[in-house]
Amino acid sequence: MTSPREVKGEARKMGLIFFPAFDWAITPTHPEREERLLYTRDQIFEEGLMDLPEVEEYKPRLAEHKDIARVHFCIPSVEALVTEAHLIAAGSTLVLADAYMKGEINNAFALVRPPGHHSMRVAHGNRGFCNVNNEAIMVEYIRRKYGIRRVAIIDTDVHHGDGTQEIFYHDPDVLFISFHQDGRTLYPGSGFVDEQGGPKAMGRTINIPLPPETPDEGIHYVLKELVLPILEEFRPQLVVNSAGQDNHYTDPLANMRFSAQGYAKLNEMLAPDIAVLEGGYAIESALPYVNCGIILAMAGLDYSNVREPDYHPGRFSMSRTMEANITGTVEYLQGVWDAREELTAKAVERAGPFFRRHKNIFYDTDGIRERQTESVKMCPDKSCPGYMTIDTDAVRGYGQSESGFGTFVPLFACKSCREEAREEYEAHKTDSRYNYIFFQDKNRDEYRLYSTRMHNERVY
Amino acid sequence: MLIGIDVGGTTTDAVLIDEGKVIKTSKVPTDHDHLLECLMAALDEIVLGIPPEKIERVVLSTTLITNLIAEGKTDPVALIIEPGPGMNPDGYSLGGEVQIVRGAIDYRGREIEALDEDQVEKAAAKIAERGYRKVAVASKFGQRNHAHEERMRETVMRTIPGVHVEMGHQASGRLNFPRRAATTVLKAAAMDEYRKFAGEVAKAVAGRRIQAPVYILKADGGTLPLATSIEHPVETIFSGPAASTMGVLALTPTGQTSVVVDIGGTTTDIALILDGSPLISSEGARVNSYLTHIRAFAVKSVALGGDSRVRAVGGRVAVGPERAGPAFCLGGPEPTPTDAMRILNLISIGERNLAEEAMANLGKKLGCSAGEAAQTVVDAAVEILIREIDEMFLAWEEEPAYRVWEILQKEKIRPQNVVGVGGGSLGLVPLVAERLGARGIIPDNATVANAIGAAVARPTLTLTFRADTERGFYTVAEDGTTGEIRDRRFGQKEAEEMAKRLIIERAADMGIGEYAAEAVLTASEVFNMVRGWSTSGRILDVSMQIPAGLIPEWTGGGRG
After folding, report:
1. pLDDT tens digits, residue range A312-365?
2. To bridge A377 with a disulfide, which of A7, A386, B211, B505 should be the other Cys (CB 3.0-4.6 Å)?
3. Where are the alpha helices (DSSP H) in A16-64?
């Protein structure tokens, strides 16, 4: 199917869902609380943005449990892991996805909370304020429902979008680019230049760590010199902005120097089809202005009058060292992108019949420590991404351990991979080392969860 | 005895109600150039032979302001805005003379940029030079802190002798600056004409020795004492559809969900009553090209009426949107839905043989009999109405929501009743009801339902209270009242109590104190403000209202 991106031209509206979840918080004093989008509400409503002929406001809906199961292995279950607020945030992206794919709107912004980009395929709880990954849920919904294949997700949050990266790491059709404050100085401590994708998808993950205090200029440089040229070559059918707002110079949880003008210009340059809000916790000094700027930019309107009260152009500049650091990173990553085919060939050869990696994952919000072993079949069929299994074991606090074994069949897997994966699932149902056995079959759009304690199976 | 008078586009309708029963009705043609005379003619007819002391209440619904605005006959107004950061203010469509000044207030009412007084002075001088006598001043977030608006007003008054200045925060305190600015302009524009009209009405009523209080109907179905309404001239626009909807509320069983279909000659107005409450539009009304903050019922106007022109277009029937004249069976030039209904015996007005002729002619073009043509026309009209009603329910269901509970509780609702008022309803409403699986109701006195609605509507009032305990003050959105809050432990309970006290005071100020007990809490939210990981204060939002409803004299009386 042709995506609306390929037939653009006709002037249409931007779609907007504003879902501040005024009645939902992680805890009363957590940054992810009711108050987060209160002043943003005041600003964008006072501006009268919803009255503009260029803006169409949509109503959120709940995502279905199946939409979550299409992406995540939720332990102990989808129902137990998500609240209604999570289903609404995810559901909002699906409403906009449908409106966009049907051509009702030119682009869309899901200005919703709670966020999602730290959620990985296996979800034991809340990690980095996220339970389920809104962008991944939306992308897999669109790919399933509308049959498009090539998607680019640009993560512009100040934190590395490690969850989204992990979910699409082995998928050569999803280009994941994240720029963020250097992981040596900020949560989650990952997103280095050598995280480049699984063996069959080398170069489809691009991480751009930026030095603390990078201003607008630095991020626009990265966009212009690296991100946009890569997008040009990758020719995605859908571009998603995983749109955090915590690069702002006043954000309390990070150290960058980005402004509302910078954010508006970023969205104008990137021209994402759908933007989804992620982090951003300077709820008074940044968010009202940043969101106003993004909405105006995406609606094709003049945003030059949007500015924070204490901002003036030229307030922040780059040092020589910072500039050298950024140009160096960009140059290196251009090399990775250009060499992606050779890198893929080498990585596949090195991996042997199965690619394996071990991961230790910490859930900061819920205090969970998880150990994972991921194994991907290096299918001899070049066009088959191979099936994947994940062995997971998680300890919550000092308490009990939950373990699971998941098998995942990607959309374009070959017949023999599909069969082998199914056998893995069936075989593990009797494996009492695990509490939960999962199966994701994207081809059949069928998602199974088997409890070895209760001996029952749920099918989503 | 209660009197209701609705000045409609074509006729001015009046009713006299005694002990919950309509005992007299009258209709006189509306003369748009002499509205007061029409009103009084209708009033005189209805009170003929009634001792004036027996009259307890007079309510008027008038198109005066609607007409003045539509015809551009209101006073010219210059606008000075302080937009602050945000959208490019050139993008606002506020028309006319707009001066922009520097300065800014933020969402919490903090001054983030001082007002440029020199600029205000220069703007005022320019406005004076161009001969304006009315000025509106509006500041973005002026409802959270109106210091800048007050200073702009002072400067303008100093610069232009005899000028009248309206401030944004007194026109509306709701979020949406462009709407607030437009509402302020309209208020300033209509103020004098309306004051003149209200004075004449009061004089004319007093001249008839009627001592009863006189009220005016607002677009949200509420009444306002004539004397207080002078401060709120634009709230009286679109009171016509509000009158009809209140009439239906009065004439149908309580607490039900109904579609109100008011079919006139050229247009049909559709409104919704959900579980006994008329649906208010979530946004303010649109007045000509202006989007405003004026509270109004959600009414959909469809270009379809009993007199709509019917044509055959490419072998199919097209109904409306224009009217060529009266129905053919009433001596008009072209076939209409009325003719179709006539020969199907759905109605009994007009000449049957003329209706036959109209439908036979149409049938010829469609290749069918007169009867079949009539059925096709009626089906097409019903189809249009069904589609519009469905769209209205859908639009209501699809209204954005910002809270988890709102998303979870909103269910699909379909009407129990389709209630027809207005001349064209008789034939079509039962058919529409049947298609929707609802009960079709044409109430007794359906043709004066609007006047009944006016007569028995009670006052409405809203109060939107916000407290910011960190900054130590509260604001009331409706009239810009602000005050201090000293107690740092001020919480939800205190906020709700304070809002209740304020709405009682406000009701007394408006002259509707006896209805204050009807006020209900519609929303109450607390936002803990956390700065540096500890709670530094709270923002408390409390909304109260006296919703649209009927006065006890009616509800206690004639409804069985």
Report:
1. 999 999 999 999 999 999 999 999 999 999 999 999 999 999 999 999 999 998
2. A386
3. 38-46
Domain range for B291 is 253-444
Do A424 and A332 belong to one domain?
A: no
Residues in A closer than 8 angstroms to B175, CB to CB, are: 41-42, 45-46
Same domain as B433, residue B285: yes
Contacts of A345 (CB under 8 A, 6+ apart): none
Residue A118 annotated among the catalytic residues of the structure: yes
A377/A303 same-domain check = no
Query: Which chain B residues are within 8 Å of A285, Cβ to Cβ?
Result: none
CB contact under 8 A, A304 and B404: no
Q: State which of B444, B476, B498 marks the end of a domain.
A: B444
Q: Does A314 touch chain B (CB under 8 A)?
A: no
Q: How far apart are CA B457 and CA A51, in angstroms?
A: 31
- In contact, B35 and B63? CB cutoff 8 Å: yes
- Structural domain span for residue A111: 11-340
- Position A9 pLDDT exceeds 60: no
At A121 the three-state DSSP class reads: coil
Q: Which two tokens stand for residue B141?
A: 């977030």
Q: Cβ of A33 under 8 Å from any chain B Cβ?
A: yes
CA distances from A109 to A243, A291, B217 (A): 9, 10, 41
Residue from A17, A46, A301 to probe the interface with B (highest B Cβ count within 10 Å): A46
- Domain-terminating residue out of B418, B444, B470: B444
Tokens for A434, please give them: 């695990």
**CB pairs < 8 Å spanning A and B:** 129
**Banded model confidence at residue A376, pLDDT cuts 50, 70, 90:** very high
B87·A47 Cβ contact <8 A: yes
Which of A72, A86, A118, A170 is catalytic? The answer is A118
Domain count, chain A: 2
Condensed to tens digits (0 to 9), the pLDDT of residues A103-162 reads 999 999 999 999 999 999 999 999 999 999 999 999 999 999 999 999 999 999 999 999
CA-nearest residue to A304 within chain B is B88
pLDDT tens-digit readout, B137-178: 999 999 999 999 999 999 999 999 999 999 999 999 899 999
The residue-averaged pLDDT of B455-470 equals 95
Domain with residue B280: its CATH number is 3.30.420.40
In a domain, B289, yes or no: yes
For residues A336 and A368, membership in a common domain is answered with: no
Evaluate whether B127 touches B135 at the Cβ level (below 8 Å). yes
pTM of the model as a whole: 0.94
Buried b (16+ CB within 10 A) or exposed e, A417-426: bbebbbebbe
Pick from A48, A288, A308: CB nearest B176: A48
Say which DSSP state A179 is in. Answer: E
Tens digits of residue pLDDT in A22-44: 999 998 889 999 999 999 999 99
* B88 closest CB neighbour out of A22, A49, A304: A304
Minimal Cβ distance to A59: which of B86, B283, B400:
B400
Whether B376 contacts B317, CB under 8 Å: yes
> Exposed (0-12), middle (13-18) or buried (19+): which is B503, by Cβ within 10 Å?
buried
- For residue A459, give the DSSP letter: E
The answer for residues whose C-beta is within 8 angstroms of residue B299's C-beta and 6 or more apart is B238, B241, B242, B245, B269, B270, B271, B281
What mean pLDDT, rounded, does chain B reach? 92
> Percent of chain B beyond pLDDT 90?
78
What number is the ipTM of this complex? 0.93
Interface test with B, best of A47, A104, A306 (most B CBs within 10 A): A47
- Judge whether B466 and B173 are in contact, CB under 8 Å: no
| Closest residue by Cα to residue B404 from A180, A455, A114, A428 | A114
Total number of domains constituting chain B: 2
Partner residue facing A46 (CB), from B107, B525, B532: B107
